[in-house]
Amino acid sequence: MSEPHQSSPSHAAFAAELLSRAEITREQWRTPGPERVRLAPDSLAAIHRIQQDNAVALHRIVERLGQWPGRSTVGQDACQAAVSIAVHCDHDPAFQQKLLRLLQTAVTAGEATRAQLAHLHDRCLVNARQPQLYGTQHWYRADGQLQPHPIADLAQLDTRRAGAGLPPYAEQARHLRERHGPLGSLSIAATAEPIPLSERHAA
What is the spatial distance between Cα 110 and Cα 144, in angstroms, rounded to a whole number? Predict the structure, then answer.
């Protein structure tokens, strides 16, 4: 079912800023794992600075709005941009958790999607060293294998993904394998420092 027609956002300036920031960093977020391994230290530092700047901007926007920048506030695309920024606020876990609560409220109000919430929820769980629920967060190991972070109750994974509007895990794994390289077994234990990779978000 297609999404209902969205009227013009009520905060166009915030929408433009979120979209601009997401556009600037989109190629970094989508960089295949093997290329990330080869990034020079100064390139990695530049990425981290941009992510920190994005977090500061998102913090300012949610403080001004008093809520998540949702569909009616900034439009669908800018709402997705805010999710992408939030997922990469790993340097500030307290703020990331606050964003998760705001996004949960937005989903209840119809201002964001369950798929968007699933991605941020998984990221927060992984950052808290807890098993993720939807299998959206992966890492690229030093040995060249791509694998998901630990997932709770694997038998119910696709049921949870369907409830969040996400495709079956096997389908997503195929896309990740095509873009990022070999996909490791779900049962392989973590043995190296991870380079995090997120499943492409559903808008």
Answer: 40
Query: What's residue 84's pLDDT?
Result: 94
CA atoms of 184 and 138, how far apart (whole Å): 10
Rounded to whole angstroms, how far apart are CA atoms 183 and 76?
31
Tokens describing residue 77: 């695309």
Tokens of 85: 């920024």
* pLDDT at residue 130 greater than cutoff 80: yes
| Three-class DSSP category at 7 | coil
**CA angle at residue 68 from 78 to 71, to 5 degrees?**
45
Q: What sign for the dihedral angle of Cα 150, 88, 40, 35?
A: positive
Token pair for 145: 């294998």
Residue 2 has pLDDT above 60, yes or no: no
Asked if residues 94 and 34 have their Cβ atoms less than 8 Å apart, the reply is no
The dihedrals phi and psi of 162, each to the nearest 5 degrees, come to -60, -40
Contact in structure between 119 and 199 (CB atoms under 8 Å): yes
- Report the 3 state secondary structure along 36-101: HHCCCHHHHHHHHHHHHHHHHHHHHHHHHHCCCCCHHHHCHHHHHHHHHHHHCCCCCHHHHHHHHH
